[in-house]
Amino acid sequence: MAASDDALLSRLSAALEAAGDIAYSWELDGDGLDWLGRLAPAGIEFAVELTSGRSFVGRIHPDDLVHRQLALAAHFDADAAFDCEYRLRDADGGFVWVHERGRAKRDGAGRPQVVLGVIRAIGERRAQQTRLERLANYDELTGHFNKSRLREAVDQLIAANQRRHSPAALLSVGIDNMTTINEVFGYEAADTVLVELGRRLDNCLRVSDLIGRLGGDRFGIVLSHCPADSIGSAAEKILAAVNSTPVTTARGPIYATVSIGSASFPDQGLTSYDVITRAESALADAKRAGRDCHTHYRMTDEQRERQRRSLSISEDVRTALREDRILFAFQPVVSAVTEQVDHYECLLRMRMPDGRLVSAAEFVPIVEQLGFIRLIDRFVLDMTLAELAAHPTVRLGFNISGLTAADRPWLRSLIAQVRNRPDLAGRLVVEITETAALYDIEESARFVSALRHAGCHVALDDFGAGHTSLRHLQSLAVDTVKIDGSFIRNLAGSPDSQVFLRHLLGLAKGFGFMTVAEGVATAEDAAILQREGVGFLQGYYFGRPSLDRPWLSPGYNHGPNPRLVHTSPESFDPDDDRRAAAKLAASGN
What we know:
alpha/beta; Beta-Lactamase; Alpha-Beta Plaits; TIM Barrel; 3 domains; eight-stranded mixed β-barrel; five-stranded antiparallel beta sheet; globular
């Protein structure tokens, strides 16, 4: 190296040290680490003591290893920067919180070869925030991911692997004799066994693999870049590691065995729920087969065909989003007294390449199962607000999925777009299904409160279908309840439905809610609803969903309540109504 190069390295090293940072180059194939700079708070001679990736990992707090592994795995699967925070053991045996950021250099085939990065110490305030985040994501006993965080990691890996067409697997590892260990040796000894077996499983993993706790006696292991024919050997390695020696506890040595069930993805599951369910089904088969063994999940031909159809619909929706073929059909909601339009509900439609229109009921449930319903709901939000901004006399509503009702980024986006725009917020009706609201009543109540505080109108959809209690209604404090269409259809011919309708209306009026009846198909049903005191009506009798914007038609009254012309009852097709206007619980249409 030339003298000028030496001088440049010296200046760079001094600059890093002055900033409190240390840089590294990590060669993945040989596991060699080279360092530049100095991390003063740690008091470690990095260039002397930590010359390999394995020796560096030995300095990371055991509870934080999986967090760094996840960040590395996500980086190796995509091109986003590697970024994480963890505790590093210092020269005195204590721990210092550090922030690591880097990026891999790849070969011509896209495989990571060298990771270049920088590490710096972070303050106690940020460390406290990191600790709080850890409590929400990690199992307190083992330090591994909790079930919720593991599921999120699986969903992320499924999405990445679908793009790269790369196989992966989930292993459900269950301790065979945990009940006996608890009863004979006590819970403290059982906890020791759990922690030790978790450590042994961890030692079997590659840097890109992940481990979490699925339940009291079960671990979940995510094997990235793992073809189906390699799963068996990985399972055998785990079985051998567990059986190698007994676990030393305060009550003496304890012999433990595990059974393993596995499932591949994305070919055997398109969501974390599918993958975990199938791996645990295989685990149950392994236990029935005699325990201390491994069983791989096998899909039936029917399941494969159903999954093939779901993937095809998923790709259709993604393509339609890119090509602006996701559209709104507008259906009027009218005053029961004047039969004039109060607002229009925006219902999703997808135009296929051949021009055929597909209703939301045919693709939204699939989109929700595959985990990208939030993308659709964000699209719906942006499109609705743009429509309101372009047409200042119109009020619009839309339905969001149960997942979005707990999605804070979606809520932040809405609030940011209507902030200082009361003209938009006051003309927006956000509908949340009753079933979704009941799933997490406290989170739903906060969501409703935030929407109303922003100036939006909030409706509880499918009212009556989810068995809302009085306490829940009081907690939600929505503006309007929409009576589920299943109680409205053929209302004139069903005395029982009329009795139930009166009960729902009494409940809603007792809380001061406005009411909307959905699925109104005939003049007879409309007359009964008007007589019983329903506030607003929606259904084919007053207007079918239409891609046309009525407010753009010549001669349309741009006042707040333009008069409607009834749709002829003879043109009503009940089957078409169910397809076109169906709004499934927790769906985003």
